[in-house]
Design brief:
The protein is of the alpha+beta class and 334 residues long. The protein has 12 helices and 13 strands. The chain has a single domain (2-186, 229-333), classed as 2-Layer Sandwich (Ribosomal Protein S8, Chain: A, domain 1), CATH 3.30.1370.60. β1 (2-3) and β2 (8-11) form a beta hairpin. The protein is globular, with a radius of gyration of 20 Å. The two termini are 18 Å apart. 47% of the residues are buried. Bound molecules: NADPH dihydro-nicotinamide-adenine-dinucleotide phosphate. NADPH dihydro-nicotinamide-adenine-dinucleotide phosphate binds next to β8 and α11. Residues 124-129, 146, 148, 164, 166, 168, 181-184, 188-189, 192, 303, 305-309 line the site of NADPH dihydro-nicotinamide-adenine-dinucleotide phosphate.
Length: 334
């Protein structure tokens, strides 16, 4: 760890996981829970996804310290209807539950073509790509979505009701990294708006509205008002679908219910995640997909989703990361 001339601290990439893990254990996690969350934070930093890296640690730590999140969670498969793998996260953070459920869910999809992973009683504060990519590495296509707390208004409205509700999809490839996209239903992820507020940047047009319902470029006003869905009413309908799939369908809280029951300690609210695993039709499916990918890549200026963040890995490995001194101290405090 190196203190820079400005008020930031530089970390080598290999320092990130032990740094995060030690803080999680001090806040009440056992080894296995700390390792799962720290690995998720490390992967986010490694891929340049800083809004889901160490930036999230104060929230993770606050919810452990307040007792809202179980740092010694032991996720369990509760029911296994023919096509459904239900997992109770035991009130812990989601990464450990994902590690537990990925193989049985992929195996179930491979044996019968399709399987639904229903994750409840968990706290989700991470980027979804890691979860669908884990499934794609086991040979299945995967779709996942989760809700949070209200940030987006319904189409025509001005008051937050839906979360920024990300949707992610991964497709397995035989001789290449999986194709993965992962996108919030909002024009911009909330973490990015929070980083803009912290660093005093203005937002591009169209990201959000203030408490008065009027467009603004001030991230602090957007955080008090509402963020906007991408594509107007179309993105609002995607966010609505996520509320229904990751909430009503699997028996978990929707964003507005999660907010009503949350203790606002700075961490995520309790919620669920909907995960669909689909077995491709053998080599024919994979070959057919490769045909489409070639047609995309033949056009100048294109790349496959997922490859953008992978391209950041080499640079992050070489240069490490820089975080604000205040964030470093918060994570490092007892
Ligand atoms: P981005 O807008 O940065 O990226 C969305 C997707 O588009 C990525 O998969 C990205 O791939 C792909 N993409 C971007 N540019 C191109 C391009 N030129 N060609 C092809 N594909 C491209 O993401 P968001 O800001 O919408 O979301 C950020 C993160 O926030 C997500 O990981 C999401 O899961 C997370 N999130 C989590 C929430 C939670 O409650 N847990 C709530 C909301 C968001 P690539 O990565 O390769 O650039």
């Amino acid at each position: 760890m190196e203190k820079t001339a400005t008020d930031t601290v530089k970390l080598a990439l290999e320092e990130v996981k032990p740094f995060a893990s030690a803080a999680l254990k001090r806040a009440g996690c056992d080894e296995v829970n700390a390792d799962a969350v720290a690995e998720c934070i490390f992967q986010a930093e490694r891929h340049g996804a800083h809004s889901h890296g160490l930036f999230r640690m104060p929230g993770y730590l606050a919810s452990l310290k307040s007792g809202k999140v179980n740092g010694k969670a032991s996720p369990k498969i509760t029911t296994s209807k023919p096509a459904v793998l239900s997992v109770d996260g035991d009130g812990g953070y989601a990464p450990l539950a994902h590690q537990y459920m990925a193989k049985p869910l992929a195996d179930l999809a491979k044996s019968q073509g399709v399987a639904l992973g229903s994750l409840t009683n968990t706290f989700h504060f991470a980027a979804l790509w890691q979860e669908v990519e884990l499934l794609a590495r086991q040979g299945v296509a995967a779709f996942a979505c989760t809700s949070f707390k209200p940030a987006l208004p319904p189409a025509g409205g001005t008051k937050p009701l839906y979360g920024t509700n990300p949707v992610a999809f991964a497709w397995p490839r035989e001789n290449a990294e999986p194709m993965v996209f992962d996108q919030a239903s909002a024009v911009m992820a909330r973490g990015e708006v929070m980083i803009a507020a912290r660093e005093g940047h203005t937002l591009p047009d169209g990201v959000g509205i203030g408490p008065d319902g009027k467009p603004t470029n001030d991230p602090n006003e957007v955080l008090k008002g509402a963020m906007l869905p991408y594509g107007g009413y179309k993105g609002a309908s995607i966010a609505l679908m996520v509320e229904l799939l990751a909430g009503a369908l699997i028996g978990e809280q929707m964003s507005y219910e999660a907010a009503a029951n949350d203790n606002n300690d700075g961490g995520p609210p309790r919620g669920g995640e909907f995960i669909l695993a689909l077995a491709p039709n053998g080599n024919a499916s994979l070959k057919s997909a490769e045909g489409l990918f070639s047609q995309i890549l033949v056009q100048e200026g294109t790349r496959l989703p997922g490859d953008g963040r992978r391209m950041k890995c080499a640079k992050v490995s070489e240069n490490g990361i820089e975080i604000p001194q205040s964030l470093f101290e918060t994570i490092n405090s007892k």
